[in-house]
Amino acid sequence: MCGRYAITTPPQAMRDLFAYMELPNFPPRYNVAPTQPVPIVRMESGKRQFALVRWGLIPSWAKEMPQSLLINARADTIAEKPSFRGAFRHRRALTPADGFYEWKEIRRGLKQPYLIRRRDRAPFAMAAIWDNWMSADGSEIETCAVVTTDANATLTPIHHRMPVIIDPEDFDLWLDPATPLKELERLMVPAPDDLLEAIPVSASVNRVSNDDPSLIDPALVTVAAPEPRKKSKTLDDRQSDLF
Hints:
This protein is mainly beta and 243 residues long. It has helices at 11-18, 85-90, 171-175, 181-187, and strands spanning 5-7, 29-32, 37-44, 47-55, 72-74, 92-97, 99-107, 110-118, 124-134, 140-150, 161-163, 165-166, 196-200.
């Protein structure tokens, strides 16, 4: 899955990469989380457009806001799932990112966060879908979900899923509503094994309110100490975690 990510590339450099017409001046974000406004790039009237939408898809046909957040859409079922198929066919997008986070289970109740980024530190595009939902009171909200696929060799030791990463030469192919399904399926595959690196980072990223450059600094991997023996049934050595 993809549940947190970072966007740190300056606005002009991001605009140069994605070639949209708007001039947004957004600050760097080191801990983007679901329900927050996130930037996407989509196709409008044949041109790429920058937009801010809520992370957590609400299908346009939904009568009420879903109880569970639809932050990810699986590539293998996105064309059939009612929650995603309409947006997948007609409203695909790109989510700019400089890295995303995944958590590796060290032992029960303890997980080590990793920052996953390109080896050359360049920004990249995660595949996404978006939709426009109208509530009962007539207010409208645009939302999105990140498309995920099986993990590549770099991610497999940490997590079994990863975001679909779209190469710049395929941006228009992904965004064009007329692109055939077979071409889209070709794009929704794991990233090359040598594209990314996984960097252990501080557990500070677990807290959504933390959002500063220190979150992407390399950290020592948490040592997996042996689990203590339970001396009685009342002893509870479980630790709560966010993921």
